[in-house]
Structures are given as C-alpha cells and as structure tokens.
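call fold(seq) -> tokens
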Amino acid sequence: MYGIKNLVDFLKKHNIPIPEKILEFLNFDILIVDDDTEILRLIKKTLSKHYPDAEIHEAIDGFEAGQKITQLVPRLVILDIKLPGMDGLKVCQNIRSDKRLDNSKILVISGHDIETYKKEFLEAGADDFLVNLLIFRFLWIKSKNL
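ret:
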C-alpha cells in the first residue's frame, strides 16, 4: 500500500504543485486512549495499515490523554469511556473546550452498547461512537469518514 508521503515525493520529483488537501494528510497524529493494552495494540495495528503516514500515539488513562492531546493536537482521538483517573467523558469535554482542538475528531469506543453513553458523548462533542465488539470491522470506515 502506498502512502501519502510517496505521492508527495512523486509530485515533488516531477515539479507538480502539491494540493493543500494532500498536505493536510502528511504527518498527522492519532491518539488512542484505552486502559486495556491489548485493545490499544490491536487498534494501533489496524490503523497503521490504513494510515501508514500517521504518527499513532497511546495513552492509558485520562490524565495522560489530556497531556498528550494538548502537546500533539491530534487529528483523531479514539477514546474509551471508562478510564482510570479522568473518565472519557471529561476528556471529551476538555477537548471540545480547547479552541486549538476544534479540528480534532473524537471517536468514542466502548464495550457497552448503552444508548445513554452514546447520547452523553455525542452531546459532549464526540463525532462518533463505536462498540468494541464491532470495532475492528468498522474502525477504519468510521475514522475515514470523520
């Protein structure tokens, strides 16, 4: 699979102007926030295949997520609901209260398909919600569409 970097290299080599939209996809950050290290590993592996030019970072609790989010200003945050320290809802609210993060997309993941959680997170500013049981089937599709 060829990445955006290969396309940019080709365009540069042939003195072809690089469209702004393409440059947006070069060197972007994704942050995965989950206290289950196995889920983190699987999500990272899945996204690495589909976003070979992305820098994929991890956080295992809400406080670490908050620190990394303000440092990285990631394009995409994949956020678990239940986290040690600061829960996912508070992390989501903090992201949406920071104007520097207006372009960051939030994809909430949960092992619980509870409509109340989904409603709370979407009202707090999450862009989409995905139940862990379906995560690996739909992760790439949902993240691509954000």
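Residues 27-145 form a domain with the Rossmann fold fold (CATH 3.40.50.2300).
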